[in-house]
Specification:
Elements: E1 11-12, H1 22-33, E2 38-42, E3 51-57, E4 60-66, E5 72-76, E6 91-93, E7 97-99, E8 106-108, E9 113-115, E10 136-140, E11 143-147, H2 155-167, H3 171-174, E12 182-191, H4 195-203, H5 208-211, H6 213-218, E13 236-237, E14 266-272, E15 276-281, E16 284-294, E17 297-306, H7 308-312, H8 318-338, E18 352-353, H9 360-372
Antiparallel strand pairs: 1-18, 2-11, 3-4, 3-6, 4-5, 7-8, 8-9, 10-11, 12-17, 13-14, 14-15, 15-16, 16-17
Pfam families: Rieske, Ring_hydroxyl_A
GO molecular function: 2 iron, 2 sulfur cluster binding; iron ion binding; monooxygenase activity; oxidoreductase activity, acting on paired donors, with incorporation or reduction of molecular oxygen
Organism: Geodermatophilus saharensis
Length: 373
Amino acid sequence: MTTTEQPASLISTLPGHYYTDPAVFALEQAHVFEDMWFCVVRSSDLPTPGSFRKVQVGRESVLVVRSRDGGLRAFLNVCRHRGAQICTEDSGAVKRAFQCPYHAWTYDLDGKLIAAPNLTKMPDVDRVQYGLVPVHLREWLGYAWVCLATEPPSFEDDVVGAVTERLGDVESIDRYELDSLTVGRRITYDVKANWKLIIENFMECYHCATIHPELTEVLPEFADGYAAQFFVGHGAEFGKEVQGFTVDGGEGFDKLPGVAEDQDRRYYAITVRPTVFVNLVPDHVVFHRMFPVAEDRTIVECDWLYSRDVVESGRDVSRSVELFHRVNEQDFAACERTQPAMSSRAYANGGVLVPSEHHIGAFHEWLTQRLSG
């Protein structure tokens, strides 16, 4: 029996079962989503003390809340009494405390147990010890990032470092002042595909000429199929006749005040592992957060961020939103077309990556190392 050697221009992908096997997804929940810094909520979505949002991080339900001192806190959304979920709503606000709907154990906004039926008759119960279990939380770029690990990895290395590695320095993203931007539009997508297919799609532009006609009109170099985000410091330049990052290439808004001249008329894409995409253009930022919920389903929450003046003035952002909304729909449809084939015998040993996609191999190596650790 003879075998055909794979040509040097092609390298192998992950086998198909990595995208369909619940056991692989369980490993990813434990060793990726629960062990790394995971971006969960825009800080401004929790404006006042008592504002909360419930999010799924790996296998855990996490409660993110604005405390009375104005800071954000995160806790496992589990009552310490009998394990009922404290909050069943996805978001909302409480006045002073969270009360478990099962037996009325009550916790303040810092997670301390403050009341329960007959608690005064149990003087040996430490109200701090039996408070909600805290989760590590950091704020950066106007978002809250949490980590469930007992000893979290370095935020500076893993999160800030990913941005620095792409842009060359952290000052380059600081110029966009993401903390001060306002959500002009938010769209949530329910994608019937494995989270890795979405990551891999975002990492390459071999498909851009095929499925992104509007994007390649604005960014002509993307039609050549290379991934600009993997060249340190490089931003894809707008076409000569393009005025703004809009669906028709027409005029957008004024450049964000801090954006440097060499960043003007350029698009930068950043992947922050495991589940964040950041897209920078001169007048706004598009920020994706992914929430993998099953081996074949991923919720993607996408924010279009503009200067406060643009949003508060009521200016129409629909033309700039529409460009990346179309890109998202085109990408997610491609991922959903791919997902069924991951269980095909034709893909049992995986597929191949052409030279402009070879960098995806580094993502595969990173993932397999984490899952084997």
